[in-house]
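To: structure desk
From: M.T.
Subject: fold request, one chain
Message: Could you run this one when you get a chance? Sequence is below, nothing fancy, just the single chain.
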Amino acid sequence: MRKFLFLCLFMGISCLAMGQTTERRQIVLVGNDDDSTFFYTEHLEYAKIDSTTTTTPKQKYLNIKRKSGASVRIYFSDIKRIVFRKIKENIVLPDVAPKIGDYYYSDGTWSDGGLISIDPEGTNPVWKNEKPAPTAGKTVIGIVAVTDPSRIAQADKDAGYTHGYVVCSKFAHDPNNKNIHTQEVFPTTKFSWDDNFECNIKVKKTGKSWYSDLDGRKHCNNVVAFYGDAVVVQSPTVYYTNIMPHPETSSEWFIPATGQMWDVLANLCGNSAAQRMKGWRTVETDATINCSAYIYDDPMTRFNSTLEKVADKDKELLETDSESHNYCPMWTSTRYNDESMCIFNVGTKHTSGNLKGKSLIECMAEWYNGDCYARPILAF
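Reply: Done. Structure tokens follow.
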């Protein structure tokens, strides 16, 4: 059963720019645990009640179809009540341009995350000695990770998203991917169950082609359009990312393409990782073979430090995926070949053995139905 909690990863309070006060209508869904999420009525194509055809007894659910993106199925057994309400909003976006490392909030605003300077390749970052705290009363949903105009996809610029990209402060989760014995939901997801997965996403193999792919939003929209209502089954990583609420002024959340994840990691994982990745940009051979390094630094800890002062309920840190691995494998939305997706492995320091003091950073690939972490981004 799809748990209501995972349909409500963030209270994505939408906003209108320029400080204009506007009255809007919401459908608010309150879960059995009193957690809630909402949808703006003007964003919906329809909201209708339906029931399953393959379960006994049948289960009723609310099927909500947004005008853009995947439809959302919410089971009545997970809902305590449905509330319709009118609200007035008056959100003013900051005058100061966003920087790498800034906090990004559920209302579409941002504030200083402590970065003083950084080179275009993500090298030589300088941070304040004392990291600023997020703005009181606001909910952090991500960290600004890319602001270089040359590294924003043209399609995203054309859609009005010219500031850059934000990496989510949490993972996307598939509530159906769980331990069959304990029913505990795994932190990882399956990218696709379709052995013939393609969805008009081109294969990228070389380091150079990985770095050049900035079309993650396009890739994920292609997946949603290709599978329709079956996307929840055929590509759960894309589905559970796509339905996450987002600010009015941003794009939907999506799984980054290789070039977008490349920039996120180079900018947030520290100088040593960025220096190594800089040298991979022009590699014209297989990235999974020739874009890998052990460095005397801790890129996982560096990334997690950007969330140091974020409330625990609003963040999930990168973590190792098993006792045998010292790294976190993360999906991209770029295909590696006919059987697998491109991923990045982000390591933490080994504490013993021949690799003591070193951490892994590398380009790799994983089967469509493999287990990796889904760390979404959005354009804003």
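Reply (cont.): The chain is about 20% helix and 25% strand. Let me know if you need anything else for the meeting.
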